[in-house]
């Protein structure tokens, strides 16, 4: 249970995120300045920088909050996997879930992806405690699959989760900016197949 000081910090953080999003909608992301976010949040510029170093980190926190607010979806995916032990079905549901999150916020998704890639190695990529909620979810599913001998266990679940995320980014970009005739369901199944079985030609 968090104390009063922590609750106040969380409330301030929420106010900053809400204020920033309102300005992004009103003026555009690039045209919004940190000073304006501080003013709208009714805090000093120094206080703002104690919470966020730039606009991109505010946007990242927004997506993190969105993901964390979908705990029921996370639990459903995890519990479903424990029941079925079907890793392919579970990864398919994960792709549907994160596709929903990012499509609902399409104007910010590219900025978020770019920021995540740029900050990927700011901390230890394996032991980083600030991994995204999506990465933790995927890692947990992969770890369970490893324990059930459905996936190789000589590779860290975090490394495998991160590779799956990179593949997902490619899928999402293709679905948004690719040919209108692209078969998204086929593309999704191909990504899962590539992740689970690799690019080696499968013999009949």
UniProtKB/TrEMBL annotation:
A Pfam family of this chain: TetR_N
MF terms (GO), sorted A to Z: DNA binding
Domain HTH tetR-type: 10-70
Parts forming coiled coils: none
Alphabetical keyword list: DNA-binding
Residue range(s) of DNA binding per entry: 33-52
Matching PANTHER family: ACREF/ENVCD OPERON REPRESSOR-RELATED, ACREF_ENVCD OPERON REPRESSOR-RELATED
Name under which the protein is recorded: TetR/AcrR family transcriptional regulator
Organism: Clostridium beijerinckii (Clostridium MP)
């Amino acid at each position: 249970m968090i104390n009063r000081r922590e609750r106040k910090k969380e409330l301030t953080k929420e106010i900053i995120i809400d204020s920033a999003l309102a300005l992004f909608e009103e003026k555009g992301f690039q045209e919004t300045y940190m000073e304006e976010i501080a003013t709208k949040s009714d805090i000093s510029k120094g206080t703002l920088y104690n919470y966020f170093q730039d606009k991109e980190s505010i946007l990242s926190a927004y997506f993190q909050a969105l993901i964390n607010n979908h705990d029921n979806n996370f639990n459903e995916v995890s519990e479903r996997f424990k029941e079925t032990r079907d890793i392919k079905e579970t990864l398919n549901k994960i792709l549907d879930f994160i596709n929903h999150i990012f499509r609902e916020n399409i104007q910010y998704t590219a900025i978020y992806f770019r920021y995540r890639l740029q900050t990927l190695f700011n901390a230890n990529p394996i032991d980083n405690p600030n991994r995204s909620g999506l990465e933790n979810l995927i890692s947990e599913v992969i770890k369970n699959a490893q324990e059930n001998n459905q996936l190789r266990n000589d590779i860290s679940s975090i490394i495998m989760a991160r590779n799956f995320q990179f593949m997902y980014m490619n899928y999402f970009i293709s679905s948004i900016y690719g040919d209108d005739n692209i078969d998204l369901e086929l593309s999704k199944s191909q990504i899962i197949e590539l992740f689970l079985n690799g690019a080696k030609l499968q013999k009949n």
